[in-house]
Amino acid sequence: MPDKERTSTAMIMKGILLIAGFLGVVYGCIRFIDSRIEHATNDEQFIRRVSSHVRPYVIFDVNSSILVDGGAMQYLERLKVEDGTRDVATPQGIVVTPTLKIVVTPRRHLAYPPLLEKLGAGRLILTPNPKRGPGHEWIYDELEVVHWENDKVPLRFRLEILK
């Protein structure tokens, strides 16, 4: 009988060691996968790539120069800023006010107009109410902008694509 007891005890110990080894391997694999995921998601290039698809934006200036592309230019064909004027009635009479017109030409249909905001000192006087232009264009017309004239930095805007 003692041999049978030793044999069954040895088999139980082998079973426990086998299960413990299997659990150790599974735990090691999980830790390895978690570390790879953490490394990938903390990578700056990966974060830029994801953010360019989630909230694509572009920063441009009054000269239609693209300063920062946060992924929006893959959706846009052209971005054009034009100078204009608008007549404003005041108690002193009619005053001609300088305005801007921003034409956004997307590569494909955008159901919602992109969000436009001014960057830096000053502000947009009129909330831009874009209109549809020919094709897929969105036109922000008669934007009255307060900007410091002695500011050496050209007027800058941030345009965010809504999907």
**Distance between the amino and carboxyl termini:** 77 Å
Sheet with most strands: strand arrangement: 2-1-10-5
Helix tally equals 2
The helix/strand series, from N terminus to C terminus, equals: HHEEEEEEEEEE
The number of distinct β-strands equals 10
- Helical fraction equals 25-40%
**Overall body shape:** rod-shaped
Query: What Rg do the Cα atoms give?
Result: 31 Å
Q: Into which percentage range does the β-strand content fall?
A: 35-45%
Average pLDDT taken over every residue: 84
Sheet with most strands: 4 strands, antiparallel
Structural class: alpha+beta
Provide a short characterization of the protein structure:
Helix content is 31%, strand content 37%. The chain is of the alpha+beta class and 163 residues long. It starts with a helix and ends with a strand.
Structural write-up:
This protein is of the alpha+beta class and 163 residues long. It has 2 domains: 2-42; 55-160. The strands form 3 sheets. The chain has a 4-stranded antiparallel beta sheet with strand order 2-1-10-5. Strands 3-4-8-7 form a 4-stranded antiparallel beta sheet, with no helix packed on it. A two-stranded antiparallel ribbon has the order 6-9. It starts with a helix and ends with a strand. The protein has helices at 2-41, 44-54; strands spanning 57-61, 66-70, 76-90, 93-106, 115-119, 123-124, 131-132, 138-143, 145-146, 156-160. A hairpin with a 5-residue loop joins strand 7 (131-132) and strand 8.
